[in-house]
Amino acid sequence: MTRINVVSMIMIVVVTLTSCSSAGVADSRHAGAPPGVEVTLSGAPVAFAPGNGSIEIVTWGSSSCPPTATLFTVKDGSASVTFDLSTGSPCTTDIAATTHVFGPEKVGKTIPETAHITFTDLYEQYDVKVIRG
Questions:
Q1: What CA–CA distance (Å, rounded) separates 102 from 55?
Q2: String of b and e for 41-61 (b: at least 16 CB within 10 Å)?
Q3: Which residues sit opposite 117 in a β-bridge?
Q4: Can you give the pTM of this predicted structure?
Q5: How confident is the model at residue 4 (pLDDT cuts 50, 70, 90)?
Q6: 81-96 residue pLDDT tens
Q7: What are the percentages of helix, strand and coil residues in the chain, rounded to 5?
């Protein structure tokens, strides 16, 4: 195997491993729901304010390719969050919760009362109350 082939294979592996790991505009993203937040398999997202100035949005989807936050704004007492589906590699066919954390710098001084959540690839929109922690 030539040096170019080895380098190419390494690049393919790196791109594959990182293609589903981006938190997008969220400060972080992790598997599961926040402790104490009750979620159901309804598929509807949940918005949670843990009391530290941040907002955490729980979404449902493949555990290997969770949605990626592409837009986050706060205006007039409401957060607006847009998600795109992670693509580019095969995904598992399971349904799992993923938490997307938006820190105080993005949220601002006042925690919104509601969140408008859009999944552009699925043509779905949800308006949810922000649960206080």
A1: 5
A2: eeeebbbbbbeebbbbbbbbb
A3: 81, 126
A4: 0.82
A5: low
A6: 999 987 677 899 999 9
A7: 15, 40, 45
